[in-house]
Amino acid sequence: MKRHSDFNWKYFIKHIAIIAVPVALQNLLTTTGSMVDTMMLASLGEKTVGAVGLCAQFSTLMFAGYWGFVGGGMMFFSQYWGAKDEAGITRSYGLTLTFMMAVGIIFACLAVGAPEMVMNIYTDKTEIQQIGAAYLRIVGFAYPLQILAMAMSALLRSIEQVKIPLYGGIAAVFANCFFNYLLIFGKWGLPRMGAPGAALGTVLAGMVNLLILLVFVVRKKIPFVLAFSRHFRWNRLFVGQYLQKCFPILCNEVLIGVGNMMINIVLGHQSEQAIAAVAVFRTLEGLVIAFFSGFANAATILVGKEVGAGNHETAFERAKRLVYLCSGFIGLACVGIILIHNPLLHAMGLQGESYRIGTGMLFIYSVAAVLRMGNWAQNDTYRSAGDAAFGSIMEITFMYLMVLPCVYSANYVFRAPFLLVFALCYGDEPIRYVIMQVHMYSGKWIRPVSEAGMAAIGEFRKRHGIGEKRKITAGGR
Fold it and tell me: What span, in angstroms and rounded, lies between the C-alpha atoms of 198 and 369?
């Protein structure tokens, strides 16, 4: 068995940096762009900030709807990349994009065609509903563009082309800030549009992002993205295997997305000051998630690639270290946000009561985030190795049997203070962390889909005393 002293730390840290830093930087830039947008909208009042923040929660629900296919797709991309199976990568991408786009079109139709209905779900404040509906009616056109860019970025990161999505993200952030400035305030002779101007800026930035990605894909001659004729070469066996792996992730993301929507409904029916504080908090939360996203992609690639190649012991040792490194960096990120929270919250339009609520939310989240992101990192690691079910079952179970009952009881039955209701949103994280750690050290989450991975799995399970599992035939063969 490989000893701890045999672990190649130099290679490990180097490749975490190569993969995680561009992804984290891209997401940090995106979050910074969102912060700048919020600062621009802050001059229009707390109601506008709150309305656009609630619209962002609808976008988050769409994200939950398609992320199951992104997570499943990246598992296939990374394992087939490790196995050097180009045909497997290409047809996996085509199937992933098809399912993602179906979700995006549904949400775009709701945003453009029924924005009042959407806003009525999230808040009972009439003026906030009107501002949000005007925003959604335009921003819905950005959803298909964002889906295309997300699918392409997921594939590029899985095949270790992490810089291309970074270039697209940088261009999109600058374009978004530029167009928002012109359209929100009516500069250069353009009409002063307010919140709808921010929505139009998002659509234009989506176009820029997609264009940059396509330019680099063509220039680098990456074979998978534009091989349209090979995207749809599926057979029943492959589609079945793909859906089998994606189904737990899809259930996880959709049910957790619905659960989060129910929580956001509770938060959206508070005072206008609390609604504004939540909108600003979600933007700052993106800074923490930006750091996490880099580690999530590193886990998917560095672990999934080795599982696909049949190097299961290496994948096992990498996974354990990734989780602890992730939690450590998240802790540092939270400390950084706390140190600068005062000027940040004021710059984003929070004053008085809304500032007090926002500060409390940040302190509560900074404690919870270390465990929360550790749980997410472990779940992403399991998924990349082929075990999409365990983490999903844990998250769904605790959301519906613990978190939601506690939040709703505290708010509607006991009329608890807002910050206590908010803190209960994270009450399950310590318990899940312990359970996830036990599963991590068991090694049972390594379940390859490539032929090379399946050929080596028996020896790994025997070495770690894991009972034999039913063999799965490689998809599409």
Answer: 29
